[in-house]
Amino acid sequence: MNTNFINDIVNWLISSGALSALFIFAWKYLKPVLVAKQKHAKTVQEKELLGLVNQLADNAVSSLVSAQGVTGSDKFKQATKIVGSTLADKGFDVQQETVEHAVQAAYEKSDLTPTVDPNKEPQTGVVVHG
């Protein structure tokens, strides 16, 4: 009796189309929720990846501070290469432009960038020292 009753209900759900309607309704309800969760996860991953890129850039720039006889441009290229190759070795795909921006930001925060006194007047024009 029990088995026949369950079979009758399942057959009715299939033949009437109620099962299809239920599936479509559930999919329409769940799809936006799944898409929102996917976007949130992607945003969190990108934020963490940018944090990693910035940290690698800080380390690369600070390791090049004491390099003597190397121009600023060469230090920048070397730091960019270090960060890019480290990320590639770990399997991260980051655009070169993002790496360059992170290295530039790290360079501006480092000891390589001279500090400017905001109260001092800048010298303009030709300056003649007596």
Describe the protein's architecture and organization.
This protein has four helices and no strands. Helix content is 72%, strand content 0%. It has 130 residues and is an all-alpha fold. It has helices spanning 2-16, 18-64, 72-89, 96-109. The chain is rod-shaped and about 110 Å long.
Short characterization:
The protein is mainly α and 130 residues long. The protein has helices at residues 2-16, 18-64, 72-89, 96-109.
Structural Rg: 30 Å
Helix content: over 70%
Derived structural class: mainly alpha
Number of helical segments with 4 or more residues: 4
Q: How many angstroms does the end-to-end distance come to?
A: 114 Å
Mean pLDDT: 82
- Overall shape: rod-shaped
- Counting DSSP E segments of at least 2 residues, the number of strands comes to 0
Task: Give the low-pLDDT segments.
Answer: none
Q: What fraction of the residues are assigned to beta strands by DSSP?
A: under 5%
Order of helices and strands: HHHH
* Largest sheet descriptor: none
